[in-house]
Every structure is written in C-alpha cells, then in structure tokens.
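S.,

As promised, the 5,6-dihydroxy-NADP run. Input:
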Amino acid sequence: MLNFDYRNPTHIVFGKDRLGEIDALVPSQARVMVLYGGGSVKKFGTLKAVTNALGKRYVVEFGGIEANPRYDTLMRAAHIAKAENIDFLLAVGGGSVMDGTKFVALATHFDGDAATLLWDGTAAIDDRKVLPLATVATLPATGSEMNPFAVVSHARGKFGLRHPQCYPQFSVLDPTLTFTLPKIQVANGVVDAFVHICEQYVTYPVDAKVQDRFAEGLLRTLIEIGPKALANPEDYDTRANLVWCATNALNGLIGTGVPQDWATHAIGHELTDRFGIDHGQTLAVVMPALWRVCLADKQQKLLQYAARVWDIHEGTDKERIEAAISKTCEFFQSLGIHTRLRDYGVAQQDVDAIVTALQNHNMNKLGEHQHITPEVSQQILSSAW
Ligand code: NZQ
Ligand code: ZN
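Predicted complex:
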C-alpha cells in the first residue's frame, strides 16, 4: 500500500426530513448566498424549504448555474457575493451547482484574475479569503458533496480544480430529493459513480485489501441497485443506497494508498466540452475502450474485477477480461446509456480534434503509469467510435 494522509472534514446530514436542521448548521448571523441551477429546486420546493430553514438570516438567491457550470456565470455570482458581503455559500442542486459554488467560494475574494485558477491551479489562493460553503445535494453522482474538487467550463476548455477549503462544511443528503430526477440523470449518476470507483481500482495491485474490497462492494451495490433506482424512483431504500454509494465513490476513502488513473475523466471532459455530451455518458464511451487498449497495464486488476465484481471464473485470462468489459458495457446499456462515440453524433474524423484538444490542455501523459500519450488517446477514441 502507498503512503497516504486522509482527512475529510465534511459533516454529512443523511436522511429524510432533515432540511430544517440547516438552521442549526449555518452560523446564526451569516449573510448567505443560496446558489441553484436551472430551476428544478424551485419547481420541486427544495429551495423554499431551504430558505425557510434559514429563517431571518440575510439571504441572496443566485439561480441559473448551468449543467457543466460556466466561468462567466460563476463570476457573476462572485461579484454579487462580494458586493453583498456574503459570508456563507449554500449550494442546492447537483454536481454542477456544488462545483460552481466551490468556484464562487474561491473567486469572490481572490486578488487577481480568477480565470487563472483554472489553468494555473489554486496554489495562489489565500485560504483565509475562501468563503465557507455547504451543500444540499439533489443528484447522486459526482461526490462533490464530500470532496474538495470542482469542474468548471470556460471558453478555453473544461478545467478541474481542487482546494482543501472546498470541502463542504456540511452536506444534507436527503434521498427523497432525488425522486424527481429524470431517468437519464439517474443513469448518468450511476455510471459516473461506477467510473469514479474504477478510476481508483482498475489500475495495478498494491495489496490494498480494504480499499479493494470496499471498491468491489460499491461496484456490486451499483450493479444491484442501478436498475431498481430507474424502475422505482420513489423506493426510498434504493435511493438511500444510491446516494451513499455515489458519495463514497469519490470522497477520498477508496483512493487512499492506491494508484489512480483518471484518464477516462480527462478524455471525457474533452467530449463534454466539444460536443456537449453529458459527463456520465462520456465515461461510458471511454472507459471500456481504454481498458481494452491499456490491457497490459491493467491486466491483474481487470482479472480481479472480473472475478470479484462479475463472478467470472471460467476461460483464459484474455477471455475473462473481455467478458468483464462486455458485462460492464451491457450494464451501462441496460441503464439506457450508449457506449459508443458514434451513438452521440460524433463523426470518426472528429477524433483528431479531440486529441488536439487534449494536447492543448497538456493531457499528454495520462493514467496511473502516465502511459496514455496523445497517440494512445487516439487509439482509445478510435476504438470507442
Ligand atoms: O439545473 P437544474 O434545473 O437543477 O436541473 C439539473 C440539471 O439539468 C437536474 N437536476 C438535479 N437535481 C435534480 C434535477 N432534476 C430534477 N430533480 C432533481 N433532484 O439534473 C441536471 C444535471 O445536473 P448536474 O448538476 O449537471 O449533474 P451532475 O450532478 O451529474 O454534475 C455534473 C457536473 O459535475 C462534474 C461534471 O464534470 C459536470 O460538470 N463533476 C464533478 C466532480 C467533483 N466535483 O468531484 C467529479 C465528477 O467526475 C464530475 O467531473
Ligand atoms: Zn465523474
């Protein structure tokens, strides 16, 4: 096992009928900005419940954060937050709203051009100037409710950031808030969580038994409950398990002391950026192709994945791995998610432009061994077509 530090400061408030507790969790004198997306939380009453819980506090609402949150929108929020002397941010929504809120937290009092945080990283930030934030999560997928990451879209591309102050102070995870999700968002979320686990598990073995068994348990849980979550949107127990599974897929725990990949995400971000394909769907296209192309690097863990996640024990090594990859694709497809690039209207000749975009974003050595050069990305994308 590799050396690691682990600390996750987010207070999880899990279960139904808990939105009222926000009153006790937000400082009583806080000037709060409540951030939300395109309106689902307005339509379904979550926003009202949150503002009610905030009681007499000074509250500014900022709506309109789009899926794949845009830098310009977030900077508008940051300017208002500064002008209004906001000292607490509350995100109410999915990954895009939570990530967007994290960026607002970083940008509001940043001295200088906040866009540079996207391409230069967050090292220049004075921690004391980052606004505290919390979330009410409405979509189980990204794990943003319990991690320090944010992904922001800009004219120059889709950029990932991380900062220790971006862990939410608390996150309310009420599975009933997910009942209103469109089927496609539930499916996207299952795939996103599944791939987060694989990015930290399908690499090479380091004898990390706890992390491996935990990852396998989460994967098997998603395989079991994914179809049920789609078929029975108001089955509380299924949604409760889905929500907690997605959070654990990317809250750092299964990634402790193990090598991590993240090439599927890097390539997927270019597909979202260029073609607007939903995040989860980009991953369903890239990961199986990446596994086939990078089979030599991942062979041992793919065999372990085949045996322990899919109960595949018969056949040669190659046959078992291929069977596991096929099972993975079938699982995604059973949720209504296509697994080939051409299914999303991307032309075969577009592959070159995606590879160029990767190069422009310095994504030239991806994967747990940094073996995924632009040439390998080209192979992955061509075979994913
Ligand atoms: O905008 P509204 O009207 O709220 O509608 C949203 C949006 O259209 C809707 N929705 C959310 N909760 C709902 C609901 N509709 C009905 N009922 C509810 N309860 O769902 C749509 C998609 O929302 P979005 O937040 O964009 O989805 P998701 O949670 O999948 O987030 C995707 C974003 O997260 C980033 C992705 O790159 C993408 O930008 N990621 C963030 C990560 C992180 N912070 O750790 C890691 C991930 O790998 C990912 O990259
Ligand atoms: Zn993801």
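Strands lie at 11-14, 31-36, 58-62, 88-93, 133-137, 149-154, 157-162, 170-173. The chain is about 50% helix and 10% strand.

- D.
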